[in-house]
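INFO batch 0412 | record 1 of 1 | parsing
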Amino acid sequence: HVSHTSPVVAVRLPKSFALIIAMLATQFAERALLCIDPQQPADRIDQLLANSGCEWVIDERGLCPFVHSAYEEQFNVASKSWRLRADRGESIPAYLFYTSGSTGTPKGVLGNREGLSHFIQWQRETFEIDHTAAFAQLTAVSFDVVLRDVFTPLSAGATLVLPEASDLVMHHDILGWMKDHGITSFHSVPS
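INFO prediction complete | emitting tokens
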């Protein structure tokens, strides 16, 4: 049972089917999803957890309450404003991602269900994605593109293919891996 006082649930799992299940569970529970890559430095993870105002974390132990650290007082205002927005019947939060922090402190970007749903529907229609597609989930867990990687194929009844960790080491043969797995679609960013 997830608390109704905070709409954010952090998912701190590596790329895996457990991650996909946790992402879906947060959406079905109507909570904002905060994906955290467990490979990030511990101080960044602590900062994201505290800044997000989350009260629950899904990690390798399962669903656990988040015990706020010294960051609690500093960032409490942000979580209260999200609660107020949701309580007034305005847009429902779907996800929370953070910028890289290259200009200083990472900034949180809260996206809503309407926008995410609209984008996924647009993407399915524009690129004619249906149950015959096979999507590669290659995006980093902490990058918002992971939402497209996961929710677009699943909402179309398509196949979602997650590479093994050993496959990811072989970046030079990613095209061979995609061919071997019948990948028809994937997301890529310039970097």
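INFO post-check: The two ends are 39 Å apart (CA to CA).
INFO record closed
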